[in-house]
Design goal:
410 residues, alpha/beta, Aldehyde Dehydrogenase, Chain A, domain 2, 2 domains, 6-stranded parallel beta sheet, 14 strands
Amino acid sequence: MADRTAVDTIRGYFYQFDYSIVSLLKLANDTESILIEGVEDIDITTASEITAIQCKYYEKTEYNHSVIAEPIRLMLNHFKDVKLGNATEIKYKLRGYYKSGHSKLILPINIQNLKDNFLTYTRTEKISNINTKVKHFHHIELGLTDSELNEFIGLLEIDINAIEFEKQFNEIISLFKTIFSCSDFSSEFYFYNSALRVVRDISKDSNQSNRNITKAEFLTRVNNSSILFNEWYVLIKGEKAHYANLRKEYFSNVNILFKERFFLIQIDPKAYSRSDVKTLLNLIVKNYAKIINQPTPFCPYIYIHGIDNLELIELKKDLVEDEIVISDGFDFEGAEYNPKSIIKKPALSHQIKLKFLNRLEYLNDTLSLTGRRAEIYQFYLNDIFFDYNSTSIKEVKIQVDNLSKIKNII
């Protein structure tokens, strides 16, 4: 079981990412944009204004003024820069979810509340090598008048009753379903996961201009055919539930229809175990090789990414010794790869149970012959290693960190 503190921290990060996603999806026009981690967590730019929003999730924390005091002071710093002519005027918003303590904050705030609860604070500082408690009056240090503080209050919005984590997530799923006219599964496993990847990639870019994205660009980058799954989401959702959902969506009807199923499996050479690979291949044979009493016998294609050529030969030897009949598209010693050979259907007289694609480049030639009957299931470690990009062929790309995870899915 993962450490609960770590999970809570991850939920906090997800809450911010999800708010960025929902903010993008709710923009009125495709040309409107957000800047991720700009002045605050996100800056939203519409045709008429810019709003800097700090968004926090305190699922187990009671609200206290001190929790939002420093962010307000930082916003006031920016406001001061605006008054000096060094920054563009924007609106400010503090958005947070708290377990309790909501009654402590009286809205709208007035100047005295702003000064007393958020701009006045005590900090321990070293004076003449002695730790001394020093009281600060932030508004006085910035040289702001009451009139200017009133102006700042007019630009500031505080919301400590933000939507709860799961409700915000469900709102995103609903928005994606509407935008892309898709199922719950596609909304979550394709579009949401893709959106999460996009937002995370943007947030890590050191170039601020690259962290600005319009609604149109966001939807274009989100709309792809990959399952982009990362370990944080698995941690929150739970591996068992995650794999059960994938299995139900993609691998629950293996006994019904004939398909040319291609399993592309990436291995980590440092953690390679022939025994583990054989166990996985035997499971694939059991589930996806249907020869007896079938109007159209079929068996799966296998490509193992990252395996050494000599080890691939030894693996095949072991499988043959285990009486698993294989084919790899080579008709005789010294022959070139023949895709017409490998696509031959298994039969009672030659019960081929596995078709090996020794090299990645053989995939395109083979898929061009199998056509729309093909389905490609790619299991990758870090980066996708094959794209066929055909609208007529189903491609499923699932990120895993070891072979056992594939067994749990298929």
